[in-house]
Amino acid sequence: MFIEVMKSKIHRVRVTQAELNYVGSITIDEDLLEAANIQVNEKVQIVNNNNGARLETYVIPGERGTGTICLNGAAARLAQVGDILIIISYAFMDSEEVSNHKPVLVFPDENNKVIA
Length: 116
Hints:
Layout: E1 2-14, E2 17-19, E3 25-29, H1 30-36, E4 43-48, E5 54-62, E6 69-72, E7 84-94, H2 95-100, E8 104-106
């Protein structure tokens, strides 16, 4: 049997843009993606700490080093620039894998930069 567990989390990033007239997705700075082991096009859950909204979408890469966190398309209606988000990715694992699994947790600074 497989269960879905947290693979990685980017904790408390600030929304830098919201682009309603875009096809959809979330744009995330490549530095953050790399640190969190989140892949381009991977499905993620977005939790908005400011208003409680939760949504799922896929990731597109943002320019490295910019701190970009941009909700695109319909998701742009669920956040405003400055809102604080948690971005979570999940993976399916069997019970043996789960017992050895350590999720990747990233805690960026107030400018969405990876803290070394």
